[in-house]
Write a structure and sequence with these properties.
The complex is a heterodimer of chains A (113) and B (111). Chain A has 113 residues and is mainly beta. Chain B has no helices and eleven strands. In chain B, strands 2, 4, 5, 9, 10 and 11 form a six-stranded mixed β-sheet that branches. In chain B, strands 1-3-8-7-6 form a five-stranded antiparallel β-sheet, with no helix packed on it. In chain B, a hairpin with a 2-residue loop joins strand 6 and strand 7. The termini of chain B are far apart. The relative contact order of chain B is 0.34. Chains A and B meet through strand 5 and strand 10 of A and strand 4, strand 5 and strand 10 of B.
């Protein structure tokens, strides 16, 4: 158990809908990272937050957004969902602003029908 | 940006054999190289990492080597066991930057 928690574990929704994925980092970790994992693209970095502020952006679509709250938990919002958004979404956390030693949560499996 | 290539994509070994997975990276400024193990239905688990100021690091049956000149690093698993079966990912980053992952290697250890 990495200490990172994610909810929900599974999510099934229809095209065009909006969903919110939630992540709680390890105790004491200030950075949260979101990744998308699909069979053809592997693990793709989406976005990083450090102590409430956006720190880095990767291959995140404009339909996706995230935020980190004062209690350091983070939410990833996915809107106008398309079939191609079906994937595993992972959250990871690390102690500082650096990406060294990231610990991953169990993931949320999103299925868009 | 950084590009990480990982080989092989699949690797089958007999229990007790050694397994080696290799990665190359493109950004000479990268200085952190972790390895993750992902079991079916779980998130990636950090198993070992190495920084650019060392050439090798060991932890029981696993070891990682780094050749900065050639820009490649490898994961070595000795005395493999069936529970080592999983997908392994290498990654690279420079300080205060984000991790770039390889495509993964599916390791199958047969009893």
């Amino acid at each position: 158990d990495s200490g990172v928690t994610q909810t929900p574990k599974h999510l099934i929704t229809a095209t065009g809908q909006r969903v919110t994925l939630r992540c709680s980092p390890r105790s004491g970790d200030l950075s949260v990272y979101w990744y998308q994992q699909s069979l053809d693209q592997g693990l793709q970095f989406l976005i990083q937050y450090y102590n409430g502020e956006e720190r880095a952006k990767g291959n995140i679509l404009e339909r996706f957004s995230a935020q980190q709250f004062p209690d350091l938990h983070s939410e990833l919002n996915l809107s106008s969902l398309e079939l191609g958004d079906s994937a595993l979404y992972f959250c990871a956390s690390s102690n500082g602003a650096s990406s060294y030693e990231q610990y991953f949560g169990p993931g949320t499996r999103l299925t868009v029908t | 940006g950084e590009n990480v290539e990982q080989h092989p994509s699949t690797l089958s070994v007999q229990e007790g054999d050694s397994a080696v997975i290799k990665c190359t990276y493109s950004d000479s400024a990268s200085n952190y190289f972790p390895w993750y193990k992902q079991e079916l239905g779980k998130g990636p688990q950090l198993i070992i990492d190495i920084r650019s100021n060392v050439g090798e690091k060991k932890d029981q049956r696993i070891a990682v080597t780094l050749n900065k000149t050639a820009k490649h690093f490898s994961l070595h698993i000795t005395e493999t066991q069936p529970e080592d079966s999983a997908v392994y990912f290498c990654a690279a980053s420079r300080r205060y930057s984000t991790l770039t992952f390889g495509k993964g290697t599916m390791l199958l250890v047969s009893p």
